[in-house]
Amino acid sequence: MCSRRPARAALLTGKERLELVEQPLSEPGPREVLVEVLACGVCATDVRKFLTLDNGMLELPMNLGHEYVGRVVAVGSSVDHIVVGERIVGDGYAGYADYALIPLDLKPPLHVPRAITLPDEVTDEEAIYVEPLADCLHALYSRAHLMPGEHVFVIGGGVMGQLLGLCAQLTGGEVILAEPNEARGKAARNAGLSVIQACVAETNPPAELSALGPPDLVVCSIGTEASLQAALKAVRNGGRILVFGGFPKGSVQTAAINELHYREISVIGTHWVGASAGTYSLNCYPAAIRLLHKKLINVRPMTSHVFELRDITKAFAVARSLSSLKVIIKPNVSRRLA
Ligand SMILES: [Zn+2]
């Protein structure tokens, strides 16, 4: 069946240790599909797990890849809606490999479709953004209830900050992104965002932001105390702060509680889309695909590097540096984009 080349998988086996292992390729069970992985994005949380092992909370060895697209090479006997040859986006930890076996049935508490068919027009390199885009839609619309025309300030211009900015722009409100790094700021502008080159640790909100009036919603795309404090200073009275970026495990942050009390500010948490029950979370995936398909979101400027699977350690070294944005693993392609 799939004996074209050995089935390799890159597994996290210890702190800052990724190992390439060969695994036997099993036939899919009745409710499983087997895909040949075409591309898998490196997520910031993968890098965090690689560096910290989440303080011993991870079960090792682990395949961290969860932003992947693959071509179906075999389907189980009870699978009727997915056929061999289709490209699908997979969700679940299996993407750093030549092949991924995807179980279609959900086991609570997960609430996401595990495999979603892609239209031909969405390229492999665009498709790896489906999962992160779904998270952004969930955060902004399901959690923060972003309304038409609202003014949004996004703190942090990494990949997620840029995706959040682009998704927020869909409502027609002013969206400003703050990012101190010049290269990241340039990529964000190329993607179609208004960017101010500012460090969020500054005492007062940047002047460009003040000129537009205090934002209705401030999105902290990075989990730092400085970004939370900056959000509190910037947000309008009665506004919302969306805590999107995760903090290190066990973090405790302080805030002047009367700021929340007297200024009626809401602080909203958000997590991976699949962690929330409800049809809205299921809808985020097809919505993300549609945004890419209809070219309403341009993710291309965000991809900075593509590595082959065997170079995954190198890929993680690049992904943790500020000189990169989205790093993609393609099992058999290695190149650096300009
Ligand atoms: Zn992710």
Search tags:
338 residues; alpha/beta; 8-stranded mixed sheet; 6-stranded parallel sheet; 10 helices; 16 strands; 24% strand; binds zinc ion
A few lines on this structure:
The protein is α/β, with parallel strands linked by helices. 28% of the residues lie in helices and 24% in strands. The structure holds zinc ion.
Describe the secondary structure blueprint for this structure.
Blueprint: E1 8-14, E2 17-22, E3 32-42, H1 44-52, E4 67-75, E5 87-90, E6 99-103, E7 115-117, H2 124-127, H3 130-143, E8 152-155, H4 159-169, E9 175-178, H5 182-190, E10 194-196, H6 207-212, E11 217-220, H7 225-234, E12 240-243, H8 257-263, E13 266-269, H9 279-293, E14 303-308, H10 312-319, E15 326-330, E16 335-336
Parallel strand pairs: 8-9, 8-11, 9-10, 11-12, 12-13, 14-15
Antiparallel strand pairs: 1-2, 3-4, 3-6, 3-15, 4-5, 5-7, 14-16
